[in-house]
Design brief:
With 276 residues, this protein is an all-beta fold. It has strands spanning 2-9, 15-21, 26-30, 36-41, 44-49, 56-58, 71-72, 78-83, 91-96, 103-104, 111-116, 122-129, 132-139, 146-150, 155-160, 166-171, 178-183, 190-191, 198-204, 211-216, 227-235, 240-249, 265-272. This is WD40 repeat protein.
């Protein structure tokens, strides 16, 4: 299987391949300065310069079991990772974007990062507490986690709207996996999709107005890898959904924020079986 790191251009509808590798890589983030992407693979993080694409390892200290829930601060100075090296379960850490010694943020595990507030002060994440999944926020400097919403079923993918007012997420709290949003300050969640597909990982565009998400075929359970999936765009004002691209992917394709700073492009990973 090959991993293909790609960029989709909304203006042209075209796809440009940035890098292809036999290594399993996942979950691209786009640096705020627009010059590079960050991906994970085999427990490590890598920077991919767009002017000369390669997998350049990022030093993450003792944290060598990073999963695909990572991201870059709005000012481009910090990298947040979700790693299980110390605890055996996913825990959130922050370190300099250039690499270095991670600083632990969440006391409780498991915790999986997914969103950074536009002002750079707050992290949104998924936690499992007493057996139940839910959404939480916590200050970048640490402290007590704040509960947003939880309940029966699954909660995942919290990502901030560009004005910081909403946190988008996916959940099957309504019976099927759909997109939802909840006020970032807390409040009642609103369901934003209700079709027959299985919808995951909403990412609001930097300029607002559209939300990118991953969509599986009906009746898919969980968010597996190596499936026929779609990348789709939701207009929250009228509920219109546009299918941008069909691909072979799923887990690892767009788990975390992946928009370019210009809001006209986004990065994703697709997978291709190699011929024997």
């Amino acid at each position: 299987m090959r991993s293909q790191l790609c960029i989709y251009d909304l203006t042209s509808g075209g796809v440009a391949e940035v890098l292809s590798t036999r290594r399993l890589i996942e979950a691209p983030n786009w640096a705020p300065d627009g010059t590079s992407l960050v991906v994970n693979g085999n427990g490590r993080l890598f920077r991919v310069p767009l002017d000369a694409p390669e997998l350049a390892a990022i030093h993450t200290g003792h944290a060598i079991k990073c999963n695909n829930d990572h991201g870059i601060s709005p000012d481009g100075r910090l990298l947040v990772i979700s790693d299980s090296t110390d605890t055996g379960q996913s825990c959130i850490w922050v370190l300099p974007i250039t690499g270095g010694t991670p600083r632990r943020i969440t006391a409780e595990v498991p915790s999986w990062w997914h969103g950074w507030s536009p002002d750079g002060k707050t992290l949104a994440f998924v936690g499992r507490r007493d057996g139940a999944f839910g959404l939480y926020t916590i200050d970048v400097e640490g402290g007590d986690e704040r509960h947003l919403v939880s309940g029966d079923g699954h909660y995942d993918g919290p990502d901030y709207s560009p004005d910081g007012a909403w946190i988008w997420f996916n959940s099957d709290r309504g019976g099927s996996m759909d997109l939802w949003r909840v006020p970032a300050a807390g409040g009642t969640p609103e369901q934003m999709t209700a079709d027959d597909r299985i919808n995951w990982f909403p990412h609001p565009a930097p300029a607002g107005g559209k939300v990118l998400f991953l969509s599986y075929e009906p009746r898919t359970e969980g968010h597996p890898r190596d499936r026929d999936v779609q990348l789709r765009l939701l207009d929250p004002t009228d509920g219109t959904i546009t299918t941008l691209l069909a691909l072979f992917g799923g887990q690892g394709t767009i788990n975390v924020p992946c928009w370019a700073p210009d809001g006209h492009r986004f990065a994703f990973v697709r997978y291709e079986p190699e011929e024997s």
